[in-house]
Amino acid sequence: MINEFLQKRVTLPKASLQYLFVADRIAHQEEVILPALEKGQIVLSHRCFWSAIPYGIMDRSNGGYNYSVGDTLLVTQSVLSMYHQITIPDVTFYLDVSAQTSLKRLKDMRVSAEYYETKERLENVEKGYKWMIEKFPDEFTLIRGEESVDKVTEEIIKNLESRIQNSE
Fold first, then answer.
1. Which ranges of 42-118 does DSSP label H, i.e. alpha helix?
2. Which of 89, 88, 91 is nearest to 166 (CA)?
3. H/E run at residue 87
4. 50-69 in b/e burial notation, b at 16+ Cβ within 10 A?
5. How do residues 25-39 score in pLDDT, each as one tens digit?
6. d(C-alpha 138, C-alpha 4), whole Å
């Protein structure tokens, strides 16, 4: 259902999206993440606890971004109330990349844009992540996403290696 929505083949009320996403994340956690962690593996995933907030606020704010603190916190609380059973990652990398660069990369890959992949929505999601990073700075590691794939990968690997060495 999520893929049908993202591919713009079906329409859904915005409030229902978070329920679908949380169900997807629970299944992903149970089927992929937890078994891998039990084997001692490192898991890299783009389906993260934290991503629920910027997308959820945007969806619940009728496609825009409502920065009224009270409204934002209420929406955040309602989104996160569904996520209480999701494992919080040990490290979350935020790839800081502009909407313009994201759209160019999608076009270069010849990938058709999905529902969230418009300039306006990507800019709103970016605002949501920046707001969240400001509120929870210790939970995020910023990576310069405008760099090449090789540079971004190198920066992530260096960060992970440093964390592993520091934990030993």
1. 52-60, 69-80, 99-108
2. 91
3. none
4. bbbbbbbbbbbbeeebeeee
5. 888 889 999 999 999
6. 35
Average pLDDT (9-34) is: 84
What SS3 state is found at 103? helix
9, 63 Cβ separation under 8 angstroms? no
- Domain 2-167: state its class: alpha beta
C-beta separation of 78 from 57 below 8 A: no
State residue 45's pLDDT score: 80
Domain range annotation of the chain: 2-167
Q: What is the pTM of this model?
A: 0.67
2, 4, 20, 111, 130 from 9: Cα distances, Å: 10, 5, 16, 16, 30
Q: Calculate the alpha carbon distances from 40 to 28, 33, 34 in Å.
A: 17, 11, 10
Tokens 């089927």 map to which residue? 31
Give the whole-angstrom CA distance, residue 123 versus residue 89. 24
Sign of CA dihedral 99, 100, 101, 105: positive
Question: Which tokens in the block code for residue 160?
Answer: 């992970």
